[in-house]
Design goal:
With about 180 residues, this protein is of the alpha/beta class. It is about 35% helix and about 25% strand. A seven-stranded mixed beta sheet has the order 3-2-1-4-5-6-7, with helices on both faces. The longest helix has 15 residues, at about 160-175. The protein is globular, with a radius of gyration of 16 Å. It binds glycinamide ribonucleotide. Glycinamide ribonucleotide binds near residues 8, 14, 107 and 173.
C-alpha cells in the first residue's frame, strides 16, 4: 500500500486527478493527506471529496524553516511514504528535501530542463518554441532539476494564446501525473 501526501497551493486539478485514479486502486494506494501552504480552492475540493486535509498556512509561521517543520510533522503524522507536489508554489529547502530524499515528486508545466521556474507557457510562446509540455520529476534541492521520470510533449500551433496553451498542457498533466 502506497501512502501519498499531496501538497498544493491553488486550484488543485492535478490533485483531484490523482485522487480519481487512486480511488480506483484502493488496495494499492491511498491519499493520506492533502496539505496546502495557503487557503485555496484545492483544499476545499479535497475536503469535499472526503480526503484528509490540512492547512499549514505559511503566514502563521515566522520563517520557512518553522513552516516546513510543521509541514513535515503533518506528512509524518499521516504516515505518508510519498510526497507529490501538485501546484505547490513554494521552493522547498534542502533540509526538507533531504528529509524525504527521493520520495518527493513534482509536476512542472514545461519540458525540463527547458523553462524552469514560473510563467512557462508565456515564456514558451515568447521564445517561439514549437514544442512544449509537462514533466514529472524527482525533487532535489535544486529548483526543477531532479531526475526526470516522465514527459509529455505537444506542438504549439501558430495562433495559440497563452490561455489555450495552458489549458492544453494541463490536460497533458492530468494524463501524465497518474502514471
Ligand atoms: C500545474 O500546471 C502545475 O504543473 C504547476 O501549477 C499548476 C497547478 O495546477 N506547477 C508549477 O508550476 C510548479 N512549479 P493545479 O492546481 O490545477 O493542479
Amino acid at each position: 500500500m502506497i501512502r501519498i501526501a499531496i501538497l498544493i497551493s491553488g486550484r488543485g486539478s492535478n490533485m483531484l486527478r490523482l485522487a480519481d485514479v487512486v480511488a480506483d486502486m484502493p488496495d494499492e494506494a491511498r491519499i493520506v493527506l492533502v496539505a496546502a501552504n495557503t487557503n485555496c480552492d484545492g483544499l476545499d475540493s479535497a475536503a469535499a471529496r472526503g480526503l484528509p486535509t490540512r492547512l499549514v498556512d505559511r503566514r502563521d509561521f515566522a520563517d520557512r524553516s518553522s513552516h516546513e517543520a510543521a509541514l513535515a510533522d503533518s506528512i509524518e503524522a499521516a504516515g505518508a511514504d510519498w510526497v507529490l507536489l501538485a501546484g505547490y508554489m513554494a521552493i522547498l529547502s534542502a533540509d526538507f528535501v533531504t528529509k524525504f530524499q527521493g520520495r518527493i515528486i513534482n509536476i512542472h508545466p514545461s519540458l525540463l530542463p527547458d523553462l524552469k521556474g514560473l510563467d512557462t507557457h508565456a515564456r514558451a510562446l515568447a521564445a517561439g518554441h514549437t514544442q512544449h509540455g509537462a514533466t514529472v520529476h524527482v525533487v532535489t534541492p535544486a529548483l526543477d532539476d531532479g531526475p526526470i521520470l516522465l514527459q509529455a510533449a505537444l506542438t504549439i500551433t501558430r495562433a495559440e494564446t497563452e490561455a489555450q496553451l495552458a489549458a492544453r498542457v494541463l490536460r497533458l498533466e492530468h494524463a501524465l501525473y497518474p502514471f
